[in-house]
Amino acid sequence: MKIGFIGVGAMAQAIIQGLLNAKFVPSNDILVHSAHKNHYENYAKKFDLTAESTNQAVAKNSDLVVLAVVPAIAADVLAEIRGELSPKKTLISIVSGVSLNRLEELTDYNLPILRSLPNINSEFGQGMTAVAANENLSGERKVQAISMYEATGSVNELDETQFAAFSAISGSAVAYVDFFIDSLSRAGVKYGFSKEMATKIAAQTTLGSAHSLMASGQTPAEMIDKVCSPGGDTIAGILAMEEAGFLPSVIKGIDATIAKSTGKS
């Protein structure tokens, strides 16, 4: 199976690195092309990928064609490769805001298409990806397409109406979690830790907390209660964060993310 990437920006590279780390396919079965020749050729050379000279060549020579360009040029790129797409190939889009219906309009109503929203953690096998398939993608073909994301983390099949909210609490939230880790780290610096040590402590604590939550099957509230002793330090900190507006600020951040992505801001 050959997987072609049209566009090799940060998200495409995260997926590619995840696939390489998982040994999902041989490296030279990953084909790449982008608008910047030096960029994609050097990237392909570094990781022993196959650099194609055009977008059409990527589409022609791939079984899974991953559209990984910015939304503003998606229509132009699809017009460029449309002649190389066929029902024997699967188009996988990671383009934000472009629906399955629109992808069909721009390509072929008989084309198997998977719309997806991965996140940057795919690089390390810890990705979280939402997918939605059109009616032409089913059975083994659908399993094959989704398996690409299963190799890089977890997958949720969702209705497209949920994609904007998913993107906010998964895709964008990677930055928000890192923002929280950095905030803990800065607090550590305030009380005498080096930034490097404080960041290591905060990151490992966040990682361990997430793992414990997933492994326990308990709710976040239940895990919080386990740590908060009556009259103790932790509940004092929780109450202070609540008083400062921690929960409303998080929800406002998610609201703003969704509003921006849906054009309502």
UniProtKB/TrEMBL annotation:
Catalyzes the reduction of 1-pyrroline-5-carboxylate (PCA) to L-proline. NADPH binds at residue 55. Gene3D superfamilies: NAD(P)-binding Rossmann-like Domain, ProC C-terminal domain-like. Its main location: cytoplasm. GO terms for molecular function: pyrroline-5-carboxylate reductase activity. GO terms for cellular component: cytoplasm. It comes from Lentilactobacillus sunkii. One of its GO terms (biological process) is L-proline biosynthetic process. Keywords: Amino-acid biosynthesis, Cytoplasm, NADP, Oxidoreductase, Proline biosynthesis. It is found in: Cytoplasm. This is Pyrroline-5-carboxylate reductase. Residues 2-96 form the Pyrroline-5-carboxylate reductase catalytic N-terminal domain.
